[in-house]
Amino acid sequence: MKFLKKLLLIVVIAIIVLISFIGINGYIVYHDALKEITLEDKVKQIRDNNNFTSLDNVSLDFKNAIVAVEDHRFYSHSGVDYIGTARAIFVNVKTNSLSQGGSTITQQLAKNIYFSNDTNLMEKIAEILISLDLEKKYSKDEILELYINSIYYGNGYYCIGDASNGYFDKKPIDMSRYESTLLAGVPNAPSVYAPSVNLDLAEKRQNKVLSSMVEYGYLTEEESNNVKSEQKSKNP
Q1: Exposed/middle/buried for residue 201 (C-beta within 10 Å: 0-12, 13-18, 19+)
Q2: What distance in Å separates the CA atoms of residue 84 and residue 100, rounded to the nearest whole number?
Q3: Do residues 202 and 193 touch, judged by C-beta distance below 8 A?
Q4: Region label for 156, one of left (φ > 0), alpha (ψ between -120 and 50) or beta (otherwise)
Q5: Helix (H) and strand (E) counts for the chain?
Q6: Which of 117, 90, 120, 94 is nearest to 102 (CA)?
Q7: How many angstroms separate the CA atoms of 1 and 17, rounded?
Q8: Of the candidates 224, 214, 235, 234, the residue with the CA atom closest to the CA atom of residue 178
Q9: What is the rounded distance in angstroms from the CA atom of residue 64 to the CA atom of residue 72?
Q10: Which runs of E-coded beta strand occur in 103-191?
Q11: CB distance 149 to 160 below 8 Å
């Protein structure tokens, strides 16, 4: 019994040391990233892009679609969605996969502007810290605006203005509901869901976007079905 207690104590201490090591090194990565270029300067770089589009000049359907499918609690969390993260961990453990990410729009923005797509554990801690900074310094609408102007939409398009013009020959404000919901599904996996790559897969992803919009009250079932009736590939 004493041996088991000692073993348990060693395991607990080892876990505490490991968590402390990851936390400290994550903070160092965070500190070094901001030392190299401040958050304000990063934001300025995005806003100085010639094709930067203000949120007021983006279709409401696109904004709603992005929030619904990427982070439906975006307007209520503080940058990190602890409920969503817990749910993602539970689903991943249950399915023995990494199918659920749990990252918020704010976290995705932090990763996009500071870190690689292959974020390691230290960078994940730094990403969370930068997300909290973003939420302190910018409004939710500003964060969403920065996000849609810095994510990759496939086909060489890195902002909403380039993507809407490139795919549909339209300004973001003029996208139809079909176009808005199709494009909102692309950033999840641009090499797979870009309409120019595979319209069939793009519209299958669009169906997920539409389902999320219905689930969270952005569209009615009838409105969703109307969009599906426009689909070019006639997915089942």
Answers
A1: middle
A2: 9
A3: yes
A4: left
A5: 12, 0
A6: 90
A7: 24
A8: 224
A9: 9
A10: none
A11: yes
- CA 39 – CA 235 distance, rounded (Å): 43
* Residues 2-72+80-228, CATH architecture: Orthogonal Bundle (1.10)
The answer to whether 146 and 80 are in contact (CB under 8 A) is no
Number of Cβ within 10 Å of residue 4's Cβ equals: 8
Nearest Cα neighbor of 160 from 139, 130, 180 is 180
Each residue's pLDDT tens digit, 173-208: 999 999 999 999 999 999 999 999 999 999 999 999
- Which DSSP state fits 130? H
Q: Between the CA of residue 140 and those of 32, 71, 95, 115, 126, what are the distances in Å?
A: 26, 12, 33, 21, 20
Return the domain boundaries, the chain: 2-72+80-228
Residue-level pLDDT at 119 = 65
Sign of CA dihedral 220, 76, 88, 120: positive
Task: Please give the residue that has the higher pLDDT: either 213 or 24.
Answer: 213
Structure tokens at 180: 């808005």
88-117 pLDDT, tens per residue? 544 444 444 434 455 899 999 999 999 876
Phi/psi at 150 (5° precision): -135, 0
Q: Do the Cβ atoms of 112 and 158 come closer than 8 Å?
A: no
49 HSE (CA, 13 A, CB side): 20
Q: What is the DSSP letter of 33?
A: H
With cut-offs at 50, 70 and 90, classify the pLDDT of residue 61: very high
Whole-number Å distance between alpha carbons of 113 and 124: 13
